[in-house]
## 1
Amino acid sequence: MSRRIVAAGNWKMNKTPAEARELIAELTPLVKSDEKDVIFCVPAIDIVPALEAADGTNIKIGAQNMYFEESGAYTGEISPQMLTDVGVEYVILGHSERRGYFHETNEDINRKALKAFEHGITPIICCGESLEQREQGITIDWIRQQIKVAFQNVSAEDASKAIVAYEPIWAIGTGKTATTEQAQEVCGAIRALIKELYGDSVAEEIRILYGGSVNAKTAPDLFAQPDIDGGLVGGASLKAEFGDIVKA
Ligand code: PEP
């Protein structure tokens, strides 16, 4: 079966609501595609204006984080219902910046993923190793552990709808992209693990992205790899260049 390619942008903590509207208006003609899923994951306060600006286009709006409780005394957090109420279908979970700066653990990410599935939100589950771990030769073991815990108690049906993003920490925002071989090796290992956990058909259906300084130049080779189904793009998703990445 052929998997639908995903071009997801992670805006991180960039763009005010007014700027979000402007950027979406600018990028809309550049990211038009019938065969690919184009997703902009925007800051929480930009979600509603972004949804309005993207109305009638092929752009889907995603969140960058979500809490694993339904509601209550969790100051500063956003619940799954708040996202679905406005029409959000995707959420990035476990980005390395959230793991690093905000101490999110694999267990937190698992709880969030289960909650997202419960509400029909597709999680984009991030994993990735540090430069030190790569140099120690433990990349694959580390990624397997991250994914195993993130998918604990996730049903096969839900797992087949998930999106996983392999993002080596040393490649994020550094201008240093992993080689196509490095990216394919890890994305292939993630698919092999999903096959061990869930069998052939889930492994065939789940979409696995590469992220880490993807740009218009590196995207074509990366996305041509057998186990890479698109990209999660940070810096370049805020520019017209994202249109060329979508085309790749
Ligand atoms: C990211 O933050 O998900 C990312 C891949 O960033 P960048 O493309 O800027 O490296």
## 2
Amino acid sequence: MINQMKGDTRQIDEDYKDAEGEKRLTKEVEIHKGLVGVYVDESLISYIDGEIGKLFYRGYPIDVLGDKSSFEEVSYLLIYGRLPTKSELANHKDLLVKERNIPDNVLSILKSFPRNTTRIELLRTAISALSLYDADDYIYTEEANIRKGLRIIAKMPTIIAFSHCIQQNQPLVEPSEELSHAGNYYYMMTGQEPSEKFERAFDKILICHADHSINASTFSCRVTVSTLSDIYSGITSAIGTLRGPLHGGANEAVAKYMFNEIKKKENVIPWAKKKLANKEKVMGFGHRVYKTWDPRAVIMRDLSLKFFTEYLDGVDFDRIPKNSGLELDHDHSEVDYIFEMTEILKDYMIKEKKIFPNVDLYSAGILHILGIPIAAFTPLFAASRCAGWVAHAIEQFKDNKMLRPRLKYVGKLNKRYKDISERD
Ligand code: COA
């Protein structure tokens, strides 16, 4: 007997004859729900060891890159497959600086979007529109794809910062040609040039999010380009996928529950108990591949600790832009330090559920203290991950096989078509 699909409450018309069809549908196939554990191809881009919590970009450990590299160098590494020489890095940085501006027409459409639109929707739509102004739009060579990819990487911070300012009715901060990719991104988001420590921290966050093998958004990107569609379409698909709270939206969700629901250390455990009792997910925990600590969470925790114990010493809190007008309904004095709250939550989740923190648990707190508005957290993930998306699109094009899995049909066949006059 063919089953009705789990969760599907639509009525199935019983008037059918499917003896012949049923025979074919009983053929056993193995279903990999959520594609868990399925390898779709080989890759040279990044490697995740989920058992021991390790991540490598092109063979280099993420903690080493986080300490020693920059987002510019990491994007070069991911796209070209090797570390740049001094002059290659200088040229690459130069190109990213020169491509920071966006076409006036894209700025005009950013201004035309409805207010209170999520920044990630604005980014998705703007990237899609940007393709129409790219001189290489209909050129599909690898060189042209790299040029387009680098333009997307260079322009994303500008689109994100501009769209945020427009939504907040604030003046635009034009990109600076003097600052690094991270420094300029920070500057456009906050209107202030970062201190060396803030710039380094921001750069580290970008490095940690730059690639993660075939995660959901990267898979979307690869599926799209596997039809020999273009790189802008691949990245537009990826942004749409990243938006969900199970993926890139988790960092915003963490900030919201920390600041709007938990607020104080003593509330952490009762809050978490209630969540688990209601069988709700606690964002910022768990991962499809890691069965232990996410190595990016280790780096971010370390950074959070530094902010908590050292970096904030001497920092003028008034210089940190307030998130006024956004989702936050507190001021800084009303909530405990996010680092202390995450420590309690982390111990509780590991003890009770053996579920470990992922990168989003800690990035949320650091981004907040850096003064990045919560509404721009998920776009920031995209601005970093687009380095990986570009690298994956190019790898997919190199040895393409269209990505097209199967679904096991579990419905009925050969139903009798009732004329509309026979239907109630
Ligand atoms: N909070 C509470 N329980 C969680 C959890 C979380 N964050 N993550 C996983 N679990 C539990 C599930 O409830 C499930 O329990 P059950 O077997 O008793 O039903 C079990 O762990 C497996 O979870 P599942 O969601 O099926 O595994 P997955 O491989 O699909 O999950 C994620 C991966 C990332 C989707 C999942 O961990 C999650 O939703 N995390 C929160 C969102 C998040 O932080 N995303 C950012 C990832 S970098």
## 3
Amino acid sequence: MIQFYNTLTRKKEPFNPIEKGKVSLYTCGPTVYDEAHIGNFRTFMFEDLLKRVLMLNGLDVFHVMNITDVDDKTIKRAKETAQPLQALTENYTQKFHEDLKWLKMLPADEYPCATHHVSGMIKMIESLIKKEHAYVEDDGSVYFKVNSFSKYGQLSNIKFEDQKVTERIGSDEYSKESAQDFALWKGWKPDDGEVAWDSPWGKGRPGWHIECSSMSMEYLGDHFDIHCGGVDNMFPHHENEIAQSQCHAGSSFVNVWLHSEHLMVEGGKMSKSEGNIYTVSELKAKGFTPEIIRYQLLSGHYRTKINFSLAKKQEGEKIVKRLSEFKSRLESFDLENVTLDENPTIYSEFVKNLSNDLDTPNALAIFFDFMKKMNRQMDKGSIDKEQVASSLYFLDKFDSVFGLIPRTGKVPEEIVKLVRRREQARNIKDWNESDNLRDKIDALGWKVKDTASGSEISKKSA
Ligand code: AMP
Ligand code: ZN
């Protein structure tokens, strides 16, 4: 059984996709006005984990992640840096894709950009005006009428009666205390410069919230399974998405809303003045590998605040090294004629924990405990080949979720053959041949160690 904590109901609930075996997933993507930071990647990594866990359970996931390439922030930054909006956003979109790939995240099926979908947004706004959920202002802006939707506040738990629906708000982001009519369409202002589209209400541009409502429904339909983001997206962004989408389609919008907690850095909130806004490029320059970053981001539960620290790099390095050694150790056994499709019984516990609202801390503990036991058995030479095969199978599944083993970890066939020949030489006590083969293996950058369970191969450190 898969269970998720649904922000909408504030309960852990069994997850059943609308269409059997298939999951429709929308995750709010980056606002491409700057390089994404490690906090953004905590949220994207949680979404990647969610997808991998759904896939581990045999589900087919269709994932859409939008690119916010027009909003208040992008327009402001383009102006500050004196470049066209498109030049700015294309540059950071490309960097974002490079970072995602480097961090070993699975790509989404679609990455719609807001600027390519403005006509769909205009249609949706027209429908909201027609249904009297929105109104046009004198400056050509269109606002959503919050008190026309009685369920407003259901996600972020704002009581409708408590709201001060007194003024309109033009900015994309605003605080909880001032829930009010918000902009669906923003009439052109001189600050917008060249950024404008024609609409029935004159020149202007879409508001941020309508972008995600319109693109998610265009790709996934009026009603889909899961929508995610970081906690800061819950209000006003996701609350406003629900209002717009439900009023437009007249049906339920999303079944499950998942939100990840924020990442702290060096014990505090990330801020420019603290100088602790780390980007992937900066962490790379400091010697972090994708696996070390993945370990720091995935070892805490997604609904708890976790702290990212440069000082934890060594701890991550150790874990990654231990996992790689475990893999090489298992791979050095000759498994000819042994089937690889058996899992150890503990594997179902591992899957159960991940499927229980993505409990990564417990799933990691289960795997590390298993690894310790298997290593002990290998030390004593008491492991049998079936156990080696099932450990390799488990390790493979483990890494399909966590991605903590560097891709170079696989022992090349050529080395495996040399190690086998060396074992045969040792069996007939041909020590000369055995030494020669060790030298060859060494020259190819690998180390061979003789243990009670047989030869162990590992890559020599650079
Ligand atoms: P943005 O590029 O600002 O639209 O943010 C992209 C994603 O990163 C959103 O889902 C945010 O909720 C998330 N996010 C922003 N800051 C943090 C943080 N410090 N920790 C975790 N997620 C964050
Ligand atoms: Zn969004």
